[in-house]
Hints:
Two copies of one chain form a homodimer.
Chain A: E1 6-12, H1 26-43, H2 48-52, E2 56-67, E3 77-87, E4 92-99, E5 105-117, E6 122-124, E7 158-163, H3 179-185, H4 189-195, E8 196-205, E9 214-224, E10 228-237, E11 240-251
Antiparallel strand pairs in A: 1-3, 2-5, 2-8, 3-4, 4-5, 5-6, 7-9, 8-11, 9-10, 10-11
Amino acid sequence: MxxxxxxxxxxxxxxxxxDQSSHxxxxxxxxxxxxxxxxxxxxxxxxxxxxxxxxxxxxILSYEGQLSAEQPVFGDEIILGTKMxxxxxxxxxxxxxxxxxxxxxxxxxxxxxxFVDLTKRRIQAIPDELVAPFHAPKLKGLTRPRNQEELTxxxxxxxxxxQVRYFDIDGNHHVNNTRxxxxxxxxxxxxxxxRHQLRRFNISYKNEVRYPDQVISRYKLQTSSKDEAKSMNQxxxxxxxxxxxxxxWQKREN
Amino acid sequence: MxxxxxxxxxxxxxxxxxDQSSHxxxxxxxxxxxxxxxxxxxxxxxxxxxxxxxxxxxxILSYEGQLSAEQPVFGDEIILGTKMxxxxxxxxxxxxxxxxxxxxxxxxxxxxxxFVDLTKRRIQAIPDELVAPFHAPKLKGLTRPRNQEELTxxxxxxxxxxQVRYFDIDGNHHVNNTRxxxxxxxxxxxxxxxRHQLRRFNISYKNEVRYPDQVISRYKLQTSSKDEAKSMNQxxxxxxxxxxxxxxWQKREN
Lengths: 254, 254
């Protein structure tokens, strides 16, 4: 029998999952990770409907990920994979990956999840029937990214405003978590984004962004050498920090 | 042998191709139409690389489409189809459809295309090798939507501004045509969009929107009855009309 902790699907990479580099955008990379984990949960009888029986839903607390220098191109057939790494009473940890058909990984991510009561809007113990089928080991500790200092208009290199749009909301009736990446990276501008390739990232979700909030995206370049750059990027609604991230960029050759 | 005019692929509908209704958003519906037509062209040896040999690329002039009341839900396996309907020296017409596995159509669209010289940025005759393999009939006339009066800030019911973002640009290094739909529909607001289901639409692309333009989206509700509503929606950059569309909406029951 297959390992119930792991699940993979084949995926034909669409052009609209890629940015102008012809490789998957970060928001779509994470969206594909969510896609395979939702299919995994459905397959195990632990999908959205099972969560709603407990008046709850999974939320993502944080991601961290590494990307290879080599990335797939739209039109490629790839593997999306996920593994339920560990679970305890309040938290679960999943691994996600994108790979070629030979299993060579383009990206590996780890995500920390918890389960919220949809009425009280707060974390509740994870119902056993939602995780037992995976036979995942007991999760010891969380490896969440550490908090960074909050950027202000003055300490940021730049800030830009983004109105939350109707189509930022997904079938869960919440602003899709992956949109935060588009808001975070856009202020860096075409010149920076075309010259740099993302190699590592982490993000912590702190507070929910809602429709039709006005989001403020701030960034600061922390280090920049001949070969790489590091940025911290934060999303605010008013004075409230909603997401805190850092990105490691490798300069593209040419 | 199969009819070279037609091409279909199976597609597993991802949650991020759907909006909060759990059905495909209009922008993703059109993106999936483009996806299947690009795969069709690739399959026939008439893809992007073949176009670039002539220093050219296809552009879309207009779409019109009809949507059924019944729509697929994320997770569904669907069919994406396309047919090269007709071709003449300067124009081509394609049909696109989304269907269930039994062939029942959720949406049918027609698109008018031309071929542009990428240096001169203007329409050129379609190279024969890009269309001959389809054995499509001679296209008589174009059926483009008629022009509507240009909305102004005063004559529009509402206008909203949208900054073109880095991730609006696709692998063709142009603002993706499907983004226009998100800009067009967002100003209608959640209240309207949640209560209405799109049943028919047409759009004419008039001028290219570029990064980092500031887009103005204007709409006017033209008719609204107990059962349906009709809106005209236009995209401007400055005073220049970039896209002109109309949408027929059916009120949702409940």
